[in-house]
Design a protein that fits this description.
There is one protein chain. Strands 1-5-6-11-10-9-7-8 form an eight-stranded mixed sheet. The protein has two domains: about 240 residues, BirA Bifunctional Protein, domain 2, CATH 3.30.930.10; about 90 residues, 3-Layer(aba) Sandwich (Rossmann fold). By secondary structure, the protein is of the alpha+beta class. It is built from 16 helices and 16 strands. The longest helix is centred in the N-terminal third of the chain and has 17 residues. Strand 3 and strand 4 form a beta hairpin. Bound molecules: adenosine-5'-triphosphate and magnesium ion. Adenosine-5'-triphosphate binds next to strand 6, strand 10, strand 11 and helix 12.
Length: about 425
Amino acid sequence: MTKLSAPKGTHDLLPPDIALWQWAEAVMRDSFARANVHEIRTPLFEATELFKRGVGETTDIVNKEMYTFEDGGQRSMTLRPENTASVVRAYNQHGMDRWPKPVKLYYMGPMFRYERPQQGRQRQFHQVGLEVFGVDTAASDAESILLAWQLLQALGLKDLTLKINNMGMPEDRHRFRQGLRDHLKDQLGALCSDCQARYETNPLRMLDCKNPDCQAMYQKEPIHTYIRTDFSSPDAQAHFAEVLALLDAMAVPYTRDPMLVRGLDYYTKTVFEITSDNLGAQSAVCGGGRYNGLVKQLGGGNNDVPATGWAMGMERLLSLLEPPKPQGLDVYVVSDDIPTALQWVTQTRQAGFRADWDPTGRKALGKQLAQADKLGACVALLLGESERNSGQVIVKHLASGEQETLAAGEVLARLGQVLHHTRVCL
Ligand code: ATP
Ligand code: MG
C-alpha cells in the first residue's frame, strides 16, 4: 500500500513547534483585545462568486490560485484564498453597518492557494488579519498600520521595513493606468508574457513583476518619472500626507515606494507592506491598505462603507522567531493503584499544575519514576500501598532527589510553594 502523507504544500504542525504558534497567537489575541478589536470566524469555503467579485477577476489569486470545487448541489465553491472578501460578506449579511462605528474585527486561520510550493509559500498557510469598517480618516489608516507594526514588535521581530504608497481612488487609477499604457505601448515586445497580459487586463500589476528585465524597463525614463508622480486627487494626496505625518509623530519608520501596487483590485488610497530583511525571496510578512469600494461592490447597499485593514502570513513571521523552550511537567503521579493515581493526577491538574501519569497501570513504581525523570517533571508524588494505608504522600523533588512525607491534605499547598519557585525558571 502506498504511504499516505500530507498534500504537497501543506504541513502538519506538531509539538514542540506548536508551542511557538500558541504563544504567538496568544500575543496577538492580547494585542487585539487591548485595541478593542474583536474576533470574527467565517467559513473556510464560500461561493466562488464571492472571490471573483471581491478579489478581482484579473488577479493572480482568482486567475490561477483558487481551490475551486463543485459541491453535491452543483454549486461552485472555493476554499478561501484570503479572508477580507468573506469578512465583508459577513459585514453585509449581518447588517454591521448598524453597529457602532468603527467596527473593528480580526481573524486568524488557514487560507488556501494553489501556488508552487517553496520556501515561504505553501498551499495551505495561515493568516492573521485586521479589518476596520466605517471610518475614512487618515487616523484610521495610521492606527491600523501601527497595530501591525506594534504586533510584530511585540513578537520580537527585527529588521522590518514598512513600505507605503498612495493608490488614489478608482478614477485616479483609471487615469494612471491609461498613462502607463501610453508610456509602454512601444516597449511591449521587451516585456515578459505575464506583463504583456497585464498590459491589457491590469496594467498596475506590471509594476509588481518580479522579472528583472521588466523591472529595468520601469526604471527607465520617462516611465520612471511618470510612475513616481502622484496622479491622485488633492483629497487623496492630503489623506496620504496626513497618514505619513501620523506615522512620523509615532516614530514609525517607513519608505515611500511608488512601485508598491499590491496584488488585489480593491485597494484605494493607502497601501502598505511590511517586509523582513531576514527572509529570502518571499520577504513580505504583512500587506494591507484601504479598500473603500469593496463593501458596496459585494452588495452592501448604495453607500460606500470605507474600510482599512491588513493580513500577515503566520508561517513567514514565525520562521523568524526562536522556538521557545519546551515547557516541563510540574508533577508526575507514581502509584500502583489506578483509581488513586487518576484521582491525584486530576486533582493536581484542577489545582493548576501540569501533571501526568502512567495510564497503562502496568509499570513498576521504579519504571514510573524513571518516566517522571525523562519527562523533566519537577516533582513526583509517590502513592504506594503503605502511603495509601497511612493517608500520606511522598513528595519527591526530582532535581535534588530529596523527598518529604506529607499528609495527603497538605500536598497541594506544598506543591504551590515548590512549583511557584521552579516555574519562574521554566
Ligand atoms: P506574495 O507577493 O508573497 O505572493 P501576496 O501579495 O500574495 O504575497 P497577500 O495576499 O497580501 O500576499 O497576503 C498577505 C500575507 O500572507 C503575505 O504578506 C504573506 O506573508 C502571506 N502569504 C501569502 N501567500 C502565501 C503563501 N502561499 N504561503 C505562505 N504565506 C503566504
Ligand atoms: Mg501571492
